[in-house]
């Protein structure tokens, strides 16, 4: 199951588990390989970036395609590449499906992408074919990828109202946190953030992964449990939450 992740610009985190820090906004995408299925966590900031990821996954897996997608949250830099993965089963936190189907929300995502520097044509193309999750996670959802089970956990709200984490069990657990955790800068709280609930969401992340897990932030380098705990306390002070 193991592959040469670094040769394709990916960071190997465990056997059959890796991630890539995408250029531009330093957003993370994660990859988990099973015997029968391939799971991608977040899909990039545009259709072109999604297509590049699709080609890299094929190269990493000997031609296999992505069968499952988990969207960490519904922001353009994590979800605009989804449409290029035809046939993949898409998962998101409950409510993400309805949100991404609303014309007003699509327009807001398009405007946000352009405001942050994405080419307007590329942003419009991605927004026009934006994929809403078919499967929504209210609490937890276990996926059998063949020889490996992973857990999708709706641990938010926090960074948004729809934050979905991914736990990959193993000798050392790997937790994909989305933008609930950021390492390369201060966690961003936009208009859809729920600051009063954010520290609780990080408590749930820590309970999910435990003290020895590898925590993969939505932006930045891999961190450990003490880092997540410190960020939890910083957010609590920042937003005056107990």
Protein architecture, described:
The chain is an alpha/beta fold and 242 residues long. The chain has helices at residues 47-61, 76-79, 96-101, 103-115, 120-128, 198-209, 225-238; strands at residues 11-14, 17-21, 28-33, 38-41, 68-70, 89-93, 135-137, 140-144, 149-154, 164-168, 174-182, 214-219. A 7-stranded mixed sheet has the order 1-2-3-4-5-6-7, with no helix packed on it. It has a 5-stranded mixed sheet with strand order 8-9-10-11-12, covered by helices on one side. Helix 4 (103-115) runs antiparallel to helix 5. The longest helix has 15 residues, at 47-61. The protein is globular.
- Count of discrete alpha- or pi-helical segments spanning 4 or more residues: 7
Spell the H/E element sequence.
EEEEHEHEHHHEEEEEHEH
Mean pLDDT: 96
Q: Report the portion of residues in β strands.
A: 25-35%
Helix content: 25-40%
The helix-and-strand class reads alpha/beta
**Poorly predicted residue ranges:** none
The profile of the biggest β sheet is:
7 strands, mixed
Which strand order spans the largest sheet, edge to edge or round the barrel?
1-2-3-4-5-6-7
Cα-atom radius of gyration: 16 Å
Keywords:
30% helix, 5-stranded mixed sheet, 242 residues, alpha/beta, 12 strands
Quick structural overview:
With 242 residues, the protein is α/β, with parallel strands linked by helices. It has helices at residues 47-61, 76-79, 96-101, 103-115, 120-128, 198-209, 225-238; strands spanning 11-14, 17-21, 28-33, 38-41, 68-70, 89-93, 135-137, 140-144, 149-154, 164-168, 174-182, 214-219.
